[in-house]
From TrEMBL:
Source organism of this protein record: Granulicella arctica
Gene3D superfamilies in the record: 3.30.465.10, CO dehydrogenase flavoprotein, C-terminal domain, Uridine Diphospho-n-acetylenolpyruvylglucosamine Reductase, domain 2
Keyword Oxidoreductase: yes
Enzyme class: oxidoreductase
Pfam families reported in the protein's UniProt record: CO_deh_flav_C, FAD_binding_5
Listed InterPro entries: CO_DH_flav_C, CO_DH_flav_C_dom_sf, Diverse_Substr_Oxidored, FAD-bd_PCMH, FAD-bd_PCMH-like_sf, FAD-bd_PCMH_sub1, FAD-bd_PCMH_sub2, Mopterin_DH_FAD-bd
GO molecular function annotations of the record: FAD binding; xanthine dehydrogenase activity
Name the record gives this protein: Xanthine dehydrogenase YagS FAD-binding subunit
EC number assigned by the record: 1.17.1.4
Domain FAD-binding PCMH-type residue range list: 1-228
Entry keyword annotation includes Oxidoreductase: yes
């Protein structure tokens, strides 16, 4: 590991000021914030991240879970994944989030990982993590070894000629289905961004993964109040039962009346370069009868733009079946 300066921030403003010393908050940033460190430290050991300054933000007052006056929920950026997954309000009103968190990593990692860090979790693409290989995300203009390499785990939606890396987070998929809002303190003040707009597609600049600018610090995430009668569910398909990333996953938030779907939000994981909201599937489902044909049509719509590579063509049908199964389970219990 290379030498770096280590500091502790005692206020949000102090952290933001430290962050502005870097020209970017994306790949290649020379100043990085650290909380749980479950991802950043790995990247530093691999020389993928090479910051000159690491700012410890664990002392900031961002570790609370609060119910909002309108019935929503505010989650501080430093709330640990385990605490969030087991919070009684989350388990009661946002079950999809609790299920997603508990499906990821190990208990030890969940005890350390934070909400803000999970939002910024880096891809598991082996070519990104191995500096001996070409990677446009790690080094712009270097090329992409994954496209003609081992790409079984990589994305089939939202890809480009420069990058097919998958967003690895389970939590982010659930937050997308819940229409979470991310709150950011930056050098120019506070701003809020819908999670669907927070992540950017790789296009020709895959090293830029989100809308964060130099000095930006995620301070909290808010969830809207759940609608009466709404149920939610997270289904994850993977090679082994524990401590494994998704081949495909689906987060469903649905409200059923009679035998028809009144409202639904669909997000998918393991298949997209960002947590994948499927507006196409939602359009096919809303107002439709609850039956196998409806679910299959929605799944076909969700994957109609899939662009598989040499080793991950199986994900197209797998993701369809994952979505059909998740919709079946969610509407059965609704």
């Amino acid at each position: 590991m290379e030498q770096f300066e280590f500091n502790r921030a005692t206020t949000v403003s102090q952290a933001v000021q430290a962050g502005t010393r870097s020209a970017t908050s994306q790949q290649g940033a020379v100043v990085r914030f650290v909380a749980g460190g479950t991802n950043l430290i790995d990247m530093m050991k691999l020389h993928v991240e090479r910051p000159k300054q690491v700012v410890d933000i664990n002392g900031l007052p961002l570790d609370a879970i609060e119910t909002l006056p309108g019935g929503g929920l505010k989650v501080g950026a430093l709330v640990r994944n385990s605490d969030l997954a087991h919070h009684p309000v989350v388990q009661r009103d946002y079950a999809v989030l609790s299920q997603a968190l508990l499906s990821g990593a190990s208990p030890q990692l969940r005890n350390m990982a934070t909400t803000g860090g999970n939002l910024l979790q880096r891809t598991r693409c082996v070519y990104f993590r191995n500096t001996a290989h070409a990677c446009n995300k790690r080094e712009p203009g270097a090329g992409c070894s994954a496209i003609d390499g081992h790409n079984r785990m990589l994305a089939i939606l939202g890809t480009s000629a420069d990058c097919i890396a998958t967003n690895p987070s389970d939590m982010n998929v659930a937050l997308t289905a819940l229409e979470a809002t991310i709150h950011i303190q930056g050098a120019k003040g506070l701003r809020s961004v819908a999670i669907h707009d927070f992540y950017v597609l790789p296009g020709s600049t895959p090293s830029r993964e989100n809308v964060l600018e130099s000095g930006d610090l995620i301070t909290s995430v808010t969830l809207p109040a759940p609608l009466a009668g709404t149920k939610s569910l997270y289904l994850k398909l993977r090679d082994r039962e524990a401590y494994e990333f998704a081949l495909s996953s689906a987060a469903i938030v649905v409200r059923v009346e009679g035998k028809k779907i009144q409202s639904v939000r669909v997000a998918m994981g393991g298949v997209g370069t960002k947590p994948w909201r499927s507006f196409e599937a939602e359009k096919a489902l809303e107002g439709a009868a609850i039956d196998a044909g409806t679910f299959r049509r929605a799944a076909e719509e969700a994957l109609k733009d899939a662009r598989p590579q040499s080793e991950n063509g199986f994900k197209v049908e797998l993701a369809k079946r994952c979505l059909v199964r998740a919709l079946t389970l969610a509407t059965t219990t609704a």
